[in-house]
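stuck on whats below:

***
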Amino acid sequence: MPRKKKQNDEIAFEDSLNTDWEHDLSVVEVPIGNRPLFYLGIVILGIALAVAGRVIYLNWANGAYYGARAEDNIAEYSETPAPRGMIYDSEGDVLAESKASFAAVLDANAFINDEDLQTTTISTAQSVLGVSSDTLSALVQQASAQDFATPIVLADDLTPTELVNLQALNLATIKVESDFTRVYPNGSTYASIVGYTGRVSQGDLEADPTLTSDDFVGKVGIEAFYDQELRGKPGITVQYRNASGQVLRQNQESQPVAGDSVQLTIDGGLQTYLSARLAQELALLNRPVGIALAMDPQTGAVLSLVNEPSFDNNLFSEPSASSTAVIEQLLTSPDKPLFNRIVNGYYNPGSTIKPLDGVAGLKDGVIDPTREVFSPGYLLVPDPYNSSTPSRYLDWRYQGNVNLAAAIAQSSDVYFYLVGGGSPPTSVPLLNATSDYGISGLGISRLHDWWQTFGLGKPTGIDMPDESSGFLPTPAWKQQALGTPWLLGDTYNVSIGQGDLLLSPLQLLDYISAIANGGKIYRPYLNASDTPLVNEDLTYLLPQIQDVQQGMVEGVSSPQGTSYTLHNLPFSICAKTGSAQVQDNTQENAIFVGYMPCNNPQIALLILVENSLQGSLNAVPIAGDVLNWYYENRIQK
């Protein structure tokens, strides 16, 4: 007889399942298929792609930032500054040098991570260094990912008091580091040539990724043009720390390397004398602005370059509250002392363009050296709409009959009106002269071509930043810009260096140097290691150039010459003067260009006085004294 199951006998798990299945016999099973798994796979794949995309983004897009953050946790980089290269004049005298100094720098990491020190740091920066809290905050905010571990310079060239106070406080956030300060021994005398350095700007950092926020770079002048050569390479030291901040080891990755030095073609004695003589004459005339440029016409080497008013470039390398105020005055001065007028400016050349006109007119057969033209002091051009009211184009004085040499020497405007624009189209009675000169003239198209032949309208290539190109007008430009046609009077005006014709002082003296040396237009240069380079070889024009040279000889030797006051000097001078009307004819710039000695030129000189009192007469005395100094101190010796 079978044993009766006890009430408390356990039911096996499998039996319970069988019992459940028995109850479910009436339920129909339906397969779920692959679609849910497919959707699940898509979701998983999407998540995987999102994660992968984020990883790629963090590594590629912000890899430098996070890499710097990770490396900052174990390594601390520091730079040992390198001295910038020296700048010398042609005699080896120092024009720019770097002297050892101390700088206060903010450790950005320590400042950000230690809130307890932030208040003390801000207070110290204000009280000891004069750096406001707003300035400090701005400096911190400007720190980029690439400069994450680079200290921020708060002050350069610390005074002894500042140095002692910072060392006494011994803050972890403000450190004192050795540095170099740029010093310019002769300040304003060479400022427009040498330029100055300054702390890098945001634009500098973007243009050159090798720079850091505490670097100095050249801003203007030679310092800017040769910045890569002058700038040294800092030494790199790396300290590796553990999580507790303890230094594990220190590696010297590289030693600092001083920058290369640059020697200039500038004659220091001539520069000093010319700067002082120009400033003296401007003071006598009560005029603030003048420039002077001297070149070797046989090579293009720049011997002297003077802009007045000048400035002390040491102001920019030793910033302080007082220097900041002076710099603000320089920036806002109407005389623009920071503007290099010789390299970056341009002027109407006035009558100094006439030697070029003479070469062009001779070569194109418009004139010959002996052909005389009568100038009663004006040229009448008939009004086609009213013959009784002709236009009068003035000469600067009665000239009488003049040939090419006399026209250059005496600076006859009527003569060069005719060379450039030709005879008036219809007859107008002139005093003591025939009504038709019978000169066809070059015309504006050929004038424009000749300007370009002599290298005008484009930079000369001097080793200075942002050189001006000047401006050469054309009929098409006038029609487009002003909405009016080019007239005969426009051609007359540019033929005597007025109107819209604009040359840089460099272009002007460069072309005059070609007249001096027989036709070679050299690239002006300041680096003494450069090799002379001929921009334009016009020696095929030597016969015409020699005829023009004679006019420049007579400009000094003839009693009617505009530079006759120089005829007593014990050497020959070839010269041309000019007076350019500016500011709607309310002002007149005085210009002198010339060279000496005439038979073997060793110096070409330009003097320009803005808003002069007596036109070119105000430039000639300066030129005479400078050429005499050069003769006595350079040629004779």
Q: What stands out?
A: The longest helix spans residues 35-61. The mean pLDDT is 86.
